[in-house]
Write a structure and sequence with these properties.
This protein is α+β, with helices and mostly antiparallel strands. The protein is built from 3 helices and 3 strands, in the order E-H-E-E-H-H. The protein has a 3-stranded antiparallel sheet, with helices on one face.
Length: about 90
């Protein structure tokens, strides 16, 4: 697929979260591509998950169907990100 056929779907601060989403989308037959981008001289990175433009609607549907994780529930309840002090 050419670059025009891909749509940026989500951006993550860590590789594991990006890879988890990418694998979930691939499992549901949504072609994906992932790129990492350094923000400041390699100190921080972003991991971008791209999906086929033709199946972006399916990717949104798949994500809407995914169950809420314990970490997401905790964040909604407390407003604190995982790993933040109490």
């Amino acid at each position: 697929m050419s670059n025009e056929e891909w749509e940026l779907f989500r951006v993550f601060p860590d590789l594991n979260a990006a890879e988890a989403l990418r694998l979930q989308l691939e499992y549901h037959s949504v072609p994906t591509r992932m790129e990492s981008k350094a923000l400041e001289v390699g100190l921080e990175s972003q991991f971008c998950v791209y999906v086929s433009k033709a199946l972006a609607h399916r990717a949104r549907w798949v994500v809407a169907q995914l169950p809420v994780t314990d970490a997401e529930l905790e964040f909604m309840a407390t407003g604190k990100l995982p790993g933040e002090g109490k």
